[in-house]
Amino acid sequence: MLVTFAPVALTTEVKSVEMHHEALTEAVPGDNVGFNVKNISVKELRRGYVAGDSKNQAPRGASDFTAQVIVLSHPGQISNGYTPVLDCHTAHIACKFAEIKEKCDRRTGKTTEENPKSVKSGDAAIVVLQPTKPMCVEAFQEFPPLGRFAVRDMRQTVAVGVIK
């Protein structure tokens, strides 16, 4: 099987899949496995990279993405240009709030304000986020583990969100 590592687009062949040092013929969702790949050293892989089937929805890096965020606790207001750290799966990457598209109701998802200047604690919003370096993310509807994130700043979680 060929796998691609995103966001760097490294493609290689899997030699074996193992769980607890025993070879497996296949792995199912939820299995914690390791795999042996050809021609790639461990130094070429970093925390936050995502491996996927090269021939079936291969993962790729995103230069920006739209997400719904809920601001939990922020001392001031969040406006365009704010750049906290996003924790998504195992990646920890600074992301800029490029555009706050709309404020919405937390429960119904209905738009309450178009193009707001800022959002504050308790608000939910649809925003465009731009990672400072390539990051692999997926829509929450398609791949929930790769579509959830936490926004961290000042050593605390200031917001949580899902990718649209």
UniProtKB/TrEMBL annotation:
GO CC annotations on file: cytoplasm
Domain Translation elongation factor EFTu-like: 11-50
Location (main, coarse): cytoplasm
Record bears the keyword RNA-binding: no
Pfam family, one: GTP_EFTU_D2
Location of the GTP-eEF1A C-terminal domain: 65-164
UniProt record similarity statement: Belongs to the TRAFAC class translation factor GTPase superfamily. Classic translation factor GTPase family. EF-Tu/EF-1A subfamily.
Record keywords, A-Z: Elongation factor, GTP-binding, Nucleotide-binding, Protein biosynthesis
Keyword flag Plastid: no
GO-annotated molecular function: GTP binding; translation elongation factor activity
Cellular location(s): Cytoplasm
Protein name in the entry: Translation elongation factor EFTu/EF1A C-terminal domain-containing protein
